[in-house]
Specification:
The protein has 326 residues and is α/β, with parallel strands linked by helices. It is built from ten helices and eight strands. It has a single domain, classed as Arginase, Chain A. It is globular, with a radius of gyration of 18 Å.
Length: 326
């Protein structure tokens, strides 16, 4: 039964340009709120980009994504899904990072997500740069490694940066495999392209069993065939979903720090998420939206739309798991 408390504010009741923006106009809850333990999907901002190696800016992503997401309505026009009626969703605010200390920020993020997990809340994260995924995985995969469907133009599997920096937005999934947070044989990376420093990342992927589907293969085979393989790789076991906005061609998503040409269009960006319906998704993120490079706001709106598509494929599983027991 639909809980009216967790319904977003309708544009029929308050214009979308009015009011304080929250993710998709949902209620904003803190852990001391009496309805906090009833939340099934928590939308969380991680305004942090200390792992960025070139053009910073994703620390401002969550605020811009919240504003853009006020345009999201209650029903998915393509699938008919009404996620807010299926699962109790709420904006749980931001994780407060330490912008001067990467290890401290990661510890703060992990602690925040451990609390979500303890309360039975499935997280949907707005980053932040892609290093954000690592401390989230440390919380969600504490008991057993997860599978992962990863949309990106980069593998983020490099060993280090400048010879010794182990924690950047180019290394999170190398660390996650090394730490036993991801089962590499249940990881698929889709959309990889662009120039490389060398083949270190792809060599590592081959050595541990990670499946890389480069953009050339993606376009030859098409969305349906590629996503059928992705579903087969992760199977029915718990799976994480990570979506870097630079998966999308910069014509459609210019507001990101490390764009790569030759990517999918915005419709294909939506299609790949719709193809994940029915998977056991225990957490997801949308990262690398960088407002300083998003002068029109189109990247943020695409990012918010992608988050809604994620919510649509996450809601059935989150509803079935139910809130944490009292």
């Amino acid at each position: 039964m639909t809980d009216p408390f967790f319904q977003p504010v309708s544009g029929m009741d308050l214009p979308r340009f009015a009011g304080i923006p929250s993710f998709m106009r949902l209620p904003v809850l803190t852990p001391d709120h009496p309805r906090y333990r009833d939340v099934q999907i928590g939308l969380v901002g991680v305004p942090w980009d200390s792992g960025t190696t070139n053009r910073p800016g994703p620390r401002h992503g969550p605020r811009q994504l919240r504003d853009a997401s006020t345009m999201i309505r209650a029903e998915n026009g393509a699938t008919g899904m009404r996620p807010f009626e299926l699962a109790n969703c709420a904006d749980l605010g931001d994780v407060g990072p330490n912008p001067a200390d990467i290890p401290d920020s990661m510890a703060r993020i992990t602690a925040f997500y451990r609390d979500l997990r303890a309360n039975g809340i499935t997280p949907l994260t707005a980053g932040g740069d892609h290093l954000t995924s690592l401390p989230v995985l440390r919380a969600l995969a504490a008991d057993a490694p997860l599978g992962m469907v990863h949309f990106d133009s980069h593998t983020d599997l490099y060993h280090s940066y400048f010879g010794g920096m182990m924690y950047t937005h180019g290394t999170p999934f190398r660390r996650a495999v090394e730490e036993g947070l991801l089962d590499p044989e249940r990881v698929v990376q889709i959309g990889i392209r662009g120039t490389n420093y060398d083949s270190e990342d792809s060599d590592f992927a081959k050595s541990v069993g990670i499946r890389i589907i480069r953009i050339e293969e993606f376009f030859v085979r098409g969305v349906n065939d590629v996503m059928a393989e992705a579903r087969a790789i992760v199977g029915t076991a718990p799976t994480y979903l990570s979506y870097d906005i630079d998966f999308v061609d910069p014509t459609f998503a210019p507001g990101t720090g490390t764009p790569e040409v030759g990517g999918p269009d915005s419709y294909q960006a939506l299609q790949v998420l719709r193809a994940l319906d029915g998977l056991n998704i225990v957490g997801a993120d949308l990262v690398e939206v960088s407002p300083p490079f998003d002068t029109s706001g189109s990247t943020a709106f695409l990012g918010a739309s992608l988050m809604f598509e994620m919510l649509c494929v996450m809601a059935p599983g989150a509803a079935a798991r139910g809130p944490a027991p009292s």
